[in-house]
Amino acid sequence: MIRQTVMLNDREKIEIKENRNHTIDFMLLRRKGFRWRVIDSIRLDVSDETKVRDEADAALRESQMMRQRMLDDPVSFIEKMHEVDELSERLERLSEKMEQATIRLRNRVESAVAELVFRHIERMVM
Which of the four, 33, 64, 101, 121, has the lowest number of CB atoms within 10 Å? Predict the structure, then answer.
């Protein structure tokens, strides 16, 4: 679980928390004495981005195993070079998908934080 805090001032902060269930929570908290109270929150579903990341991790593990097979038995490995080419193409496609997913996620995170701050400012003005 990843957690990050952005202090808005000495009494208010935004806490960003990645959960195991493929969601990210953005919480606006206000200090009340020694405790922090949740004022507002937004939850993003990031399961699509997580699937891409998991797929890329699996392909990287596969390439590491293939590299080890090459070191263990180079002769039989040379006979199966088409597998290396296929994996190389797959890794290239996954790299592009990861880049797109990262950009998409960054935009969604920025929008969520902006929405949280905007709603907070709106409440302060009203």
Answer: 33
Q: Model confidence over 8-43: pLDDT tens digits?
A: 889 999 999 988 888 999 999 999 999 999 999 999
- When computed from its CA atoms, the radius of gyration of the chain, rounded to whole angstroms, is 22
For residues 74-89, average pLDDT:
78
- According to the model, what pLDDT value does residue 43 have? 93
Domain region containing 37: 2-125
**How many distinct structural domains can be found in the chain?**
1
How far is residue 81's CA from residue 77's CA, in Å, rounded to a whole number?
7
**Structure tokens given for 21:** 């269930």
- Say which residues have a Cβ less than 8 Å from residue 15's Cβ, sequence separation at least 6: 3, 4, 5, 6, 25, 26, 27, 29
Report the alpha-carbon distance of residue 22 to residue 32 in Å, rounded. 30
The DSSP code for 19 is -
Average pLDDT, the chain: 87
